[in-house]
Amino acid sequence: MRLVPALLAPGCLLLVGSGEPTSADWAFALVAALALLPGGCLPLSVVFVEAALVVVAGAVADAPPAVVKVAACLAMVELAARRPPKAALFGGAALALAYLVVYLECGECADAVGLGYLLVVLVAAPLLLGWWLRALSQNLAQAQARAREAEERKELAALGARLAERAELAREVHDLVAHHVASMALRAGVAREVLPDLDPRVRTVLDDVHGSATTALVDLRRLVAVLRDPASVTDPTRSLLVEPAELPAALASVVERSGRNGLLLESQVDPEVAGLDALRGLAVLRVVQEGLTNVAKHAGVGARARVSVALADDAVLVEISDGGDGAPAPERLLVDSGYGIEGLRERLALLGGTVTAGPEGRGWRLRATVPTDAARVARR
Predict the structure, then answer these.
(1) Which end of the chain is more exposed for a tag (fewer CB within 10 A), N or C?
(2) Where is the Histidine kinase/HSP90-like ATPase domain (predicted)?
(3) Considering the domain boundaries, does residue 21 fall inside one?
C-alpha cells in the first residue's frame, strides 16, 4: 500500500501540473513519494523531510510541484493519526513554516489571505483529518475492549453458575448416594462376619455385593472430586474415570463382573481401542456397561450374551446381544431408571455417533457406532 503514492506520482505530475514537467519536477515527485514509505514508524521525521522538500522545491522552481504538496498532506494526516497531538502540532508547525518560507522567498501567494488559505488547506485540514481518524481508531479500540470485557464477564458468570451447580451436585452425591452405597457395603460385610455358616452360594452373592458397592463407592468419591475441580469444567477429559490406555482392561473387568452375575459371556475386544482418545474411550466403556446391565436385568441368570468391540477405519463398532434364554429376575426385584439408552444416545450424539437397540429373535441387540480420530489411532 505504501508504494501506491510512488506509482501514482507520475500521473499526478502530468495531470495536475501546469506545463511540461521538468526533470527537477520528476525528481522532487519521486523523492516526495518515496519519503512516505517509513511513515508508519517515523511519521514525524517524514513530515520534516516533506517540509524540507517543500522549501527546496520552492527555491529551485517557481513553486513546489503539486505532487510534493500532496505528499506533505498525506504525511501530515499520518502523523496526526499515529502520534499524540503535541507531536502532530510540532509537525504541523514545521510544515506551515516551510510554506511561509516559500511564500516569502518565491512570492507564490499574492497576499496574506492567499497564504492563510494555503495553510488551511495544506496544513490545518490534513491535521484535523488525522485527528479525526485517530479518534475514530481509539473509539473502535475502546468499543472492542468493552465488547471483550462484556464477553469475559458473561463467560465468568456462566462458569460461576456451572461451578455452583457442580458443587451442589457433588454435595448431593456425597451426602445421599455415597452414604447409601457405603451403608450397603458395610451391611454386606457385617452379614459375612456375623453369619459364618452361610450357604456358599449366599456368601458368594454377599462377596459380590460388597465388592460392587466398594468399587461404586470409590468411583463416587472420584466423581465428587472431579465435580469439585474447577479445571474439569473447561477440560472434559479431566472428568474421566478411566485412562484411554486402560480401556481394554476396564472392558475386561466389566465383562468379568457381569459373568459373576450369572451371564454366560463371549467377548471380543480389539486391543487397538487403547489408542482412542479419552472421550471416545469412555463412551465405548459406558455402552458396554449399559448393554450388559440390560442383559442381566431382562435376559436373566444363565443367559448367553456376546460382546464385540471392533475398531474399523473411522469408527468403533460396539455390539451387545443376547439370546433371551436366561431366567429373568422377578419384576419386583428390577430397578429401572428408564434413561440408560437415552443417556447413551445423548452421549454419542455429542461425538457424532449413533445407538440402536431393539429385539432380535427372543433376545435383544444393542449396536453403537463411535467415530474415531483415525490419525491418532494409527500413530499408536
Answers:
(1) N
(2) 284-372
(3) yes
Residue 352, domain CATH: 3.30.565.10
369 sits in the region (left: phi over 0; alpha: psi -120 to 50; else beta) called beta
- Say how many domains are in the chain: 2
Q: Is 311:272 a contact under the CB 8 Å cutoff? A: yes
The domain boundary residue, chosen from 108, 131, 151:
108
Residue 135: inside a domain: no
What is the distance between the alpha carbons of residues 22 and 32, in angstroms, rounded to a whole number?
15
Nearest to 282 by CA among 332, 184, 330, 350: 350
CA 319 remoteness from chain centre: 34
Contact status, residue 234 vs residue 275, Cβ threshold 8 Å: no
* Residue finishing a domain among 108, 131, 164: 108
Query: Could you give the CA distance from residue 355 to residue 273 in angstroms, rounded to a whole number?
Result: 18
Domain assignment present for 211: no
Residue of 273, 309, 276, 307 lying closest to 293 (CA atoms)? 307
Residue 277 counted as domain residue: yes
Residues in the chain: 380
- Cβ neighbourhood burial of 43 (10 Å; 0-12, 13-18, 19+): buried
Q: Which domain holds residue 78?
A: 4-108
Mean pLDDT per 10-residue segment, the chain (380 residues): 54 55 70 78 88 84 75 89 91 90 66 78 91 93 92 85 79 77 82 79 81 80 73 53 76 85 86 84 88 80 87 89 69 52 85 87 88 54
